Amino acid sequence: MKNKSPKNLVVNVKNLEVFFKKKQIINNVSFQVYKGEIIGLFGISGAGKTTIIRVLTCQIKKKHWKGIVTVTNITPGKKQNNSKILEKIGYVPQLELLNLYYDLSPLVNVEIFASNYGIKKDNALKIARDLFKILDIPEDTWNNPLKNLSGGEKKRVSMAIGLIHKPSVLFLDEPTTGVDANKRYDILNYLKKLNRKLGTTMFIITHDLEAALVCDKTAILREGKLLEFDTPYKLISSLASDGQLVRFTIENLDEKIIKKIKQYPLCKDISRTGNNVIEVFIQDLEQNYSNLIEYIINNNIKIISMSRDIANFRRYFQLRIKEEEEKEFKEK
Amino acid sequence: MYISGLVRKELGRLRSDKRTLILLFTIPLILIIIFGLTSGGGPSGFFRAAIITKDDMDCFGDFPSNSTEYDDVFISIFQNNLTSFGLETYYNVSNEFAYNNAYIECEQMLKNEIIDVFIVLVENFSETIENNVNTELLYFIDASNFDAIKSINVSMLEPISLFKLEIGKTANFSMLIPYLEFEVPFWESQVLNYAFALTIPLIIIGTTMNLSCLSIVSEGPLPRMLITPTSKKSIILSKLIANSLIMILQAGEIFIATAIFGLYCLGSLFELFLVFLAIGLCGVSMGLFISSISKTDQQANQLYMVFFIVVLLFSGQFVSVGSLPPSMKVIIYSFPLGYGIPLVLDITLKGVSIHFGLFSGLLIISTVYVILAYLSYLFKKVEV
Ligand SMILES: Nc1ncnc2c1ncn2[C@@H]1O[C@H](COP(=O)(O)OP(=O)(O)OP(=O)(O)O)[C@@H](O)[C@H]1O
Ligand SMILES: [Mg+2]
Fold first, then answer.
1. CA–CA min distance B293, chain A (Å)
2. Which residues are in the CB-under-5-Å shell of ion ligand 2?
């Protein structure tokens, strides 16, 4: 379905650099996004995620950035270009307070934003109702002041606003922040649902690494550099043993024990994921699995339980960032 | 540009904020009611007077015969029911000694607040009237009461008008009061009408500026609007339109309220309303300007106060424009009341129709402020 022909290229970024007052915020970032893809932008705070989205949504003046950027085949910067791009993209900002009129009802909110795209009132209300239904916004709240809605419902109204004009790309800045764990999955599911139903290309900025589940591609940013840009599956597979790991629960786990296990010759990585839990990556897990267990037992380390698993994106992200930090440390 | 949606948004926002909406319409009303009650036919509009007439004394005027006793007529007018004066007592003095005694007594009554004013009719009172020469009317007011001075000055026109009617002469009275050239009929609320020219435009400016001065700063989702194909130009324009619509209602309300409180208008009411609207437009655009340069609500509120005071100071009422150096004139004429007040005075009191230059002055000012608001919003950093 996701055809990588130039015709379907929605966002193209090549050698993007962003400067604010001589300070380089984004460093030589390149990636391509095709129609219908969901892109997850990950990176610790200050990595430059929002900055990239702000370039793509015409919020940063051309004098601040260099490189090739096209959104729906148009380059942001010139005023006419910007308004052409803005016609075709949707945006869901991080804070609802900045996006919604709290004293007005969800329907009126949507209608207001719809009018900016030249959508007539009746038509806007019809689209709004459809979107609200997809997003499960309770019908009895549609005409109440928005301030009476729950946080999650506000978030979904905000998404409906971003989608009102059927944009070809939707940018979401931290759509799951401030929403409880269950609702987070709901929101991600809604996004996936919308993506399937409307074919909308989506950019999701998030600190929520579980969100990678719904992403076709994930981008990992660190200090303005794009470390990776690929499907989560491919990224995880690039780990030792294709991302397969062994998880141990160990009695009285401490740093000393971890260090000991690390000394196992084929050990690639260890991450502590709980009070007594570690996950161990080794080379050629299939062949060396029993070997590892033997090594641990021989060192008088008591295993309470163990299991085999495949690394999730969270693990990948942590390891990838750690690797980068170590590399940087060595360079210094 | 899709303005109509934005305008509806503005109106929707105003409508949803019931508290502000009520304030926007009740405050001008309350101001006018307070103003109307305190300056109209209320208690302060009634003064107790005493009269000393020296008309019987000899003088060196053209009529030594002293034949006509106009002072009696004048006193009898005070004795009959005046709406603004009650006569406490009067003294008919025929020599300087009696005059001094009467004067001391009156002074004492003034001090003890038994009377508010005493009037002295000079030796040649009747003679000058008979001869159509300027008649001097001397009256003493407790100078510590600023309000009373003004009100009495104005109220004095009532007995004078009646006196003129009574004697069938158009005698000139030189009273050193500022309003001599205009005459509001005494049955109208005189104080209201004279003070009206400053107060009402001020109320209009105040309420309309209040209406729009938060409109940009306090709108959280406004930066978000800019990530739609909406331009800053349409945002400013829609705010101008929506706020002007509300302003028209406010001006209408003020217009009706002043009429109820005895506004006397010699000229066209329609033109007066037009002037109100032009003043209101200035208020709206100045408010927009304030809103566009402020970073927070608090800043906007402070700037509102500053602007209001500046508008008041440069209304041309506290400094006389004519005597100012050209540079100062420029300042006065860059604020609306320098045009608004003369326009209102012209229409209500002189019955003149709208002075084109002054009226366009108002329109130019509001245009300039709208452009300034647009420019400062254009260069303002807005971030989502
Ligand atoms: N207008 C600006 N002027 C100067 N520096 C800026 C500006 N905008 C962003 N920065 C800097 O650029 C860096 C990246 O900011 P950005 O908002 O893109 O981070 P982020 O990855 O979105 O972080 P978070 O996850 O906390 O939202 C930060 O160090 C920030 O201080
Ligand atoms: Mg951010």
1. 19
2. A 50
Interface predicted TM-score (ipTM) of this complex, two decimals: 0.80
Confirm whether pTM is higher than 0.80.
Answer: no
B227:A116 CB<8 A: no
Contacts for A330 with CB less than 8 Å, ≥ 6 apart: none
Kindly report, residue by residue over B295-342, the tens digit of the pLDDT. Answer: 999 999 999 999 999 988 888 777 666 677 888 778 778 889 989 988
- Strands of the sheet with A169-173, listed across from one edge: A89-92, A169-173, A201-205, A38-42, A217-222, A225-230
Ligand 1 atom with least separation from CA of A53? 18
Question: DSSP letters of B307-326?
Answer: HHHHHHHTTSSSS-GGGS-H
Tell me the torsion sign for CA atoms A195, A196, A198, A200. Answer: positive
Which domains, and CATH codes, for chain A? Answer: 6-230 (3.40.50.300), 237-331 (3.30.70.100)
* Cα distance between residue A302 and residue A250, in whole Å: 6
The pick from A17, A19, A50, A52 for probing ligand 1's pocket by mutation, whose C-beta has the most ligand atoms within 8 angstroms, reads A50
Tell if the CB–CB gap between A98 and B9 is shorter than 8 Å. Answer: no
Domains of chain B: 3-39+188-378 (no CATH), 47-176 (3.40.1710)
Encoding tokens for residue B344? 């209102």
**Which of A58, A104, A118 lies at the smallest CB-CB distance from B2?**
A118
pLDDT band at B148 (very low <50, low <70, confident <90, very high): low
